[in-house]
Write a structure and sequence with these properties.
The complex is a heterodimer of chains A (111) and B (119). Chain A is built from no helices and nine strands. Chain A is mainly β. In chain A, the strands form two sheets. In chain A, strands 1, 3, 4, 7, 8 and 9 form a six-stranded mixed beta sheet that branches. A three-stranded antiparallel beta sheet of chain A has the order 2-6-5, with no helix packed on it. Chain A is globular and about 40 Å long. The relative contact order of chain A is 0.33. Chain B contains no helices and eleven strands. In chain B, strands 2, 4, 5, 6, 9, 10 and 11 form a seven-stranded mixed beta sheet that branches. Chain B has a four-stranded antiparallel beta sheet with strand order 1-3-8-7, with no helix packed on it. Classes of the chains: A mainly beta (111), B mainly beta (119). Chains A and B meet through strand 3, strand 7 and strand 8 of A and strand 5 and strand 10 of B.
Chain lengths: 111, 119
C-alpha cells in the first residue's frame, strides 16, 4: 500500500487528453513539491515533471502538472502510442518513516 | 554525457549479503545527494536510501534499516549499497539515482541491476 494513491490504470485514444491523479496528505504533497516520472516498458524511470508543474528540457509541453492541497495531477494532451508507460508521482515526506515516497503507479494505455 | 551505471546484482540466498555499486560520470558527483530506488517484479517504485554529498547524512526506508548501508566514495565517483540479511521481499531491480535539491527530484537514473533473493 503506497503512501500516495494513484489510479492503477487509465486509457484514452490517440490525440485525446488524459489526467492522472495522485493523492497524499499534509506530511507529503500538502507541504512539498511533487515530481512525476515516466517509465516506458523495460526501461528505467525518467523525470517528467518537477516542482509540481515544471518540465525538464526535452520534455514536450503536451505534459503538464498541477497541485492543489494534498493532491497533484499529471496531464497529457495529444496522446501518442509512444506515451504508453507507467507514470509515478513522488514527493518528500516529513514523517519519520520515509524520506521520499512514490505513488503506486498508473499504467497508461493508448487505445 | 551524464550517466549512472549500476553493477553487482545477482542471485543470493535468504540471509546472504550483496554489495551494489553505481559508477557516475558526466557531472560533479560530489555536489549531489545520491539515492537507491528499487522496483520489485511487476510492482511500483520504492525509495530505499539517500546519502548527502559528503556522506554525513543517510536516510533509509523502514524496511531496510539495520540491514542495508548506503555509502559513497567521491574520489571514485561511486555510490554503494551494502545489503545484509537479505530477504525474499528484497528481490527487485535496484536503481541508482541522482537526487537533485534544485530542482527537488530524482533527475538522473541508471539502468538498474537485478537482485534475486531465493534458495
Amino acid at each position: 500500500q503506497s503512501v500516495l494513491t494513484q489510479p492503477p490504470s487509465v486509457s484514452a485514444a490517440p490525440g485525446q487528453k488524459v489526467t492522472i491523479s495522485c493523492s497524499g496528505s499534509s506530511s507529503n504533497i500538502g507541504n512539498n513539491y511533487v515530481s512525476w516520472y515516466q517509465q516506458l516498458p523495460g526501461t528505467a524511470p525518467k523525470l517528467l515533471i518537477y516542482e509540481n508543474n515544471k518540465r525538464p528540457s526535452g520534455i514536450p509541453d503536451r505534459f503538464s502538472g498541477s497541485k492543489s492541497g494534498t493532491s497533484a495531477t499529471l496531464g497529457i494532451t495529444g496522446l501518442q502510442t509512444g506515451d504508453e508507460a507507467d507514470y509515478y508521482c513522488g514527493t518528500w515526506d516529513s514523517s519519520l518513516s520515509a524520506f521520499w515516497v512514490f505513488g503506486g503507479g498508473t499504467k497508461l494505455t493508448v487505445l | 554525457e551524464v550517466q549512472l551505471v549500476e553493477s553487482g546484482g545477482g542471485l543470493v540466498q535468504p540471509g546472504g549479503s550483496l554489495r551494489l555499486s553505481c559508477a557516475a560520470s558526466g557531472f560533479t558527483f560530489s555536489s549531489y545527494w545520491m539515492s537507491w530506488v528499487r522496483q520489485a517484479p511487476g510492482k511500483g517504485l520504492e525509495w530505499v536510501a539517500n546519502i548527502k554529498q559528503d556522506g554525513s547524512e543517510k536516510y533509509y526506508v523502514d524496511s531496510v534499516k539495520g540491514r542495508f548501508t548506503i555509502s559513497r566514495d567521491n574520489a571514485k565517483n561511486s555510490l554503494y549499497l551494502q545489503m545484509n540479511s537479505l530477504r525474499a521481499e528484497d528481490t527487485a531491480v535496484y536503481y541508482c539515482a541522482r537526487f537533485s535539491t534544485l530542482p527537488l527530484a530524482f533527475d538522473i537514473w541508471g539502468q538498474g541491476t537485478m537482485v534475486t533473493v531465493s534458495s
